[in-house]
Amino acid sequence: MYSRQDQNRCYPTFSEQRLPLHRLPRFRQYIAWLCLCLILGSAIPVHAEFGDSSLGWTLEQERAVAGYLQRRLQRQGNVINDVWLEYWLAERAERLRQTSTSTLGPLSVVLLRQKAFNAFALPGNVMGFNLGLWENARTEDEFTSVVAHEIAHLSLRHFNRLSDSNRQQAWLAISGALLGIALASVNSEIGGATLIGSQMGAAQQSLAFSRSMESEADRYATDMLREAGYNPNAGAAVFARLQQSLGGRSGSDYWQTHPRAITRSAQLEAQQGSASGVTGHTDNQYETLRWYINEHYAADDDFAPDPTWQSLAQTPEQLLPQPLMDDPDPNTLFGWIRFQAEPDDPRTLERLALLLTLFPDFDPAWHLRAELTARSDTANACREALSLLDQIKGQYLEVVELRHRLSGDCLQNREAEATAAWYWHRGEETRALTLLRRALELPDNASQLARLREKLSEYERQLALLPG
Q1: CB 367 within 8 A of CB 398
Q2: DSSP state letter for 109
Q3: Nearest Cα to 18, choosing from 32, 30, 34, 38?
Q4: Residues 99, 158: Cα–Cα separation, whole Å
Q5: How far apart are the C-alpha atoms of 141 and 186, rounded to whole Å?
Q6: What residues contact 163, with CB distance under 8 A and at least 6 apart?
Q7: Checking DSSP bridges between strand 126-130 and strand 119-122, what pairing results, if any?
Q8: CB atoms within 10 A of CB 449
Q9: What is the pLDDT of the chain when averaged over all its residues?
Q10: Which tens digit of pLDDT belongs to each residue from 5-57?
């Protein structure tokens, strides 16, 4: 996990009276008490039989917890739901995953609104990346080095290895990280203190990612970057900039859950040597994404200049500028299309159609095309938009939301399912289950009845897998 724990911090204190555990569901009450044991320190004993009977999560339970965490983040509004950004991030993660020498399943990425320079990995192959990474990572190589580091934690099975050596304490450390984010929906100060406290307690007992595991992940990430064609020195550059942002403050590595940024930068530089022959990624697509994020999600900051392609104009005989078509990239072309002053112009749909002929798997273009089609006055616009959404391969909350809206307009026999999915993925599980159960009482036909039962069974199983 990338962290700014090198900084001197003042951690807020809190008592049981300030922590409203009675307001939490049973699962979060369960994790809360475990985490309090960590925060209060190693002087509080934790009985082995409690850990043995309650913390032995299966792989399915890990994934259920990961899904639960993502839904909690959605409910409290911490996640940036943007098909374009999620697609770009998932594509880079997948490229790196394929270079991993270990067997690693599909990855899930979450982009958080936090401006701190941080990222994390969780059981179930979930990775979270803060908005602040886009501000600090100046090139795609630097940003991807952070992605590679989190994939390295998962590839090296650090959660499992911690569990093998001391299962109870390992899961306590993980539970503390989960709780820190989950409690933020009740009180952001409590949530932040809990997350920091759990990490500190885990560090004191060698429970969280140890310094050796962080260094191991750094080395593994460097190999993945090189294999994927990225600059393997990018990680050292990121840590050097992080050290600069800390104002030169330093301290003993012994007291940190992570080696100091300056230490990690030096280690990576020593590992790479001259790094001759490496290639970098400084082309238009990262510049495009970074500008887009600055404009739409961090307007108060000024960290990304306008892309150089903004001044390009289309020629009368072409829908897209020739310089961009000479070496086409879907992200740069998509950015140019979105930059146009009149997105509802009929030519926008034509440009998107052309883009999709070149890159048929580019989910962001399918989503924007569906949105614009749904807003048009053409006949069957609603159903046509739904068919466009069917072309999207990834899982995105924006797509779930649009399908929910369109189903109510032109596909009423699917409205209950689409609405329940919308409630579920935004963290309103009870509302989703209630809707499905009511719809089952008066189904339109046998086909709908089967679909509703299947969806209800799926959701109930996910909740049943949660520990506690």
Answers
A1: yes
A2: E
A3: 32
A4: 18
A5: 37
A6: 170, 171
A7: antiparallel
A8: 14
A9: 74
A10: 433 333 333 333 334 444 445 545 444 444 433 333 333 333 222 222 233 56
Structure tokens at 454: 């299947």
pLDDT at 433 over 90: yes
Residue with structure tokens 């600055």?
Answer: 294
Task: Report residue 98 as tokens.
Answer: 């394929």
Distances (CA, A) of 95 to 101, 269, 317, 401: 13, 24, 36, 28
Q: What is the mean pLDDT of residues 392-409?
A: 95
| Burial zone of 360 (CB within 10 Å; 0-12 exposed, 13-18 middle, 19+ buried) | exposed
Question: How far, rounded to the nearest angstrom, does the alpha carbon of residue 102 sit from its chain's CA centroid?
Answer: 21
User: Token pair for residue 398?
Assistant: 């924006």
> Per residue in 156-190, pLDDT tens?
776 665 555 454 444 445 555 555 544 444 444 44
Tell me the two tokens of residue 132.
Answer: 């602040």
182-196 in b/e form (b: 16+ CB < 10 A) is bbbbbbeebbbbbbb
Radius of gyration of the chain (CA): 24
* Whole-angstrom distance, CA of residue 141 vs CA of residue 238: 10
Cβ count near 359 (within 10 Å): 16
Q: Hey, what amino acid is at 371?
A: E
Instruction: Report the range of poorest mean pLDDT among 4-13, 289-298, 428-437.
Output: 4-13
Handedness of CA 49, 70, 64, 404 (dihedral sign): positive
Q: Given strand 126-130, what is the order of strands in its sheet?
A: 108-112, 126-130, 119-122
